[in-house]
Amino acid sequence: MSASAATEHSAVAPAPEAVFQALGDSTRLRCLALIVTHGELCVCELVHALELSQPKISRHLKLLREAGLVADRRERIWVHYRLADTLAPWTRTTLDAVVAEHADSPPFADDARRLAHMPDRPDGRCSN
To answer: What keywords would UniProt list here (predicted)?
Structure first.
């Protein structure tokens, strides 16, 4: 696998139980909300936005990947996350609805504001 290769955990859509279990944790839900909104984010962008440690964010992203909700892409030393291509339409609809309903509420609005003001994001991307 090349340094910039993308990975999908599974070729099948995640089971409803896995989706709702992942959504039941606020850190994972906050990460997903930002990923839904921005399409793809680097781990360091999520660390900055959520104001949590890199190991904690990475642990939650690993659980999201194992649940089949996100896929990752390595670019040199950085790992970028996006929604998995295998999501069932109902899953994407659910995530979009949650994000739309809560985008202006804490902590989601606070996370979005911090990400928007993250220094050193040329062209809106992480450069750390």
So the answer is: Arsenical resistance, DNA-binding, Transcription, Transcription regulation
